[in-house]
Design a protein that fits this description.
The protein is mainly α. A hairpin with a 5-residue loop joins strand 1 and strand 2. The protein contains five helices and two strands; from the N terminus they run H-H-E-E-H-H-H.
Length: 114
């Protein structure tokens, strides 16, 4: 996760996320995984995301946010009496979503290895 994610600016971390995915793809090609980058019947290359890619994507989507900057700005724009009142519920909600994401990834990884 990038600092932009933690601040609730998911759109700002897209370049960093794409770069991380490219690096994970290079790593998978270096590992020589035949399922990743192998040929399918019509000569096209098939790419299957590995565990690290899926975990990165799920954690990026669940996105633990400490300060939801966008929501505070919207609440202030629309005249909320306490625009920052969303911080505690946002931390709780994103903590739960990130914890569920981690558990899900671990369960799927364990299931795949069995």
């Amino acid at each position: 996760m990038t600092p932009a994610n933690v601040l609730g600016l998911g759109w700002a971390c897209t370049p960093a996320g794409l770069k991380a995915m490219e690096e994970l793809a290079k790593l998978e090609e270096e590992r020589g995984n035949p399922a990743y980058g192998g040929n399918i019947g019509n000569g096209k290359r098939e790419r299957i995301a590995n565990n690290e890619m899926c975990t990165f994507l799920i954690l990026n989507i669940s996105s633990l946010q400490l300060i939801p900057v966008n929501m505070i700005a919207y609440r202030q724009q629309y005249g909320s009496a306490n625009p920052a009142g969303i911080i505690a519920p946002a931390i709780a909600a994103t903590f739960v979503s990130t914890a569920v994401a981690v558990v899900y990834c671990k369960l799927k990884d364990k299931k795949r290895r069995v």
